[in-house]
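User: Before I run my own analysis I want an independent prediction to cross-check against. Here's the chain; please return only the structure tokens and, at the end, one sentence I can use as a sanity check.
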Amino acid sequence: MGEGSSGAGGARINVAIADDYPVMREGLARLIADEFGFAVTGSAATARELRSLVTRQPPHVLVMDLMLQDADGLALIKEVAVLAPTLRIVVFSDHPEDVYAERCLRVGAHGYVMKRDPVATLFRAIRDTAAGGIAVSPRVSSDVLGRLMGRTTKPVGVVGSLTDRELQVFRLAGRALSTRVIAAQLGVSAKTVEAHRENIKSKLGVENHAALVARAAQWLRESGQG
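Assistant: Structure tokens:
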């Protein structure tokens, strides 16, 4: 962690930022640096830069976009959590929280904040996670608590029944990417992508690849990811 700081008890909280858009990354860095008790200690635009950052000089809290252009977000969160076990991760995203927030928590994140939320929400999430807490919206918190208590809930839209990996394939298929490109982005074989695609078609009740791509593209548009 940062020299002479634990991120708790009023000490300075060292924050790093990962976002592939320079305007977002630089603007966020200025906002965080101007907030009392925060210091920006690094930033990354790619998965490779992020891996180097968290292993070389891990901050107390990492604020990261869910999807960097060169890596899938869920897989990257899981990898970063292994590379820097003491790091607290706040996902800062425009992807729908009802689809992604709990998935992010399961793979190693500690908070999920929507980019449309007030900046004060992000600052509170940084402080809460640095202190060892979890930071999600009341709705997500209620849903997660309900599942832990054994209450049944309906799947979210068309993707509620998909596994994390199937959701990754579904999202990339909606961008009309080929099997080979999807396999490369996810670090798996083309045969594995095909198997996931067959499972997705079965779960969503679509008959062929073209129908799957159309369904995925529609979901991306409706959820603001298109």
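Sanity check: Confidence is low (pLDDT under 50) at residues 1-6.
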